[in-house]
Specification:
The protein is mainly alpha-helical. It has 5 helices and no strands. The protein starts with 8 loop residues before the first helix and ends in a 7-residue tail after the last helix.
Length: 113
């Protein structure tokens, strides 16, 4: 089993900054990521690639879920208001929609007789 290592916030920020600053010096962004990971002793270039992508999301440069939004969803799920909650508890009000059922029943022919 591979050893998991946690890197500090400062190390991650420095690594992302170095990739952004030096990406144009390499033939591809991933080449820059591999070089920076090796230089800083980060065991996995893939880990650094994920940090770079998340930094892009945080800066609204790419689509994705920000850290703050993910934390908010986790907190709601922990309180029981997440995706697995009972739809009746979500406060939508009113009766459930039945138009999808009407489509099914309208397409059935009455029995011959």
């Amino acid at each position: 089993m591979a050893k998991t290592q946690n890197y500090g916030r400062e190390t991650r920020a420095r690594a992302v900054r170095l990739v952004r600053e030096h990406a144009r010096d390499y033939p591809s962004e991933f080449a820059a990521i591999k070089a920076v990971a090796a230089r800083l002793g980060i065991g996995s270039a893939e880990a650094l690639r994920k940090w770079v992508r998340q930094a892009e999301v945080e800066a609204d440069e790419a689509a994705g879920v920000s850290t703050a939004k993910a934390r908010q969803v986790r907190d709601l799920q922990a309180q029981g208001g997440g995706a697995g909650a009972d739809p009746g508890d979500l406060g939508g009000g009113g009766p459930p929609r039945t138009d999808s059922y009407l489509f099914v029943t309208d397409s059935v022919s009455p029995p011959a007789g």
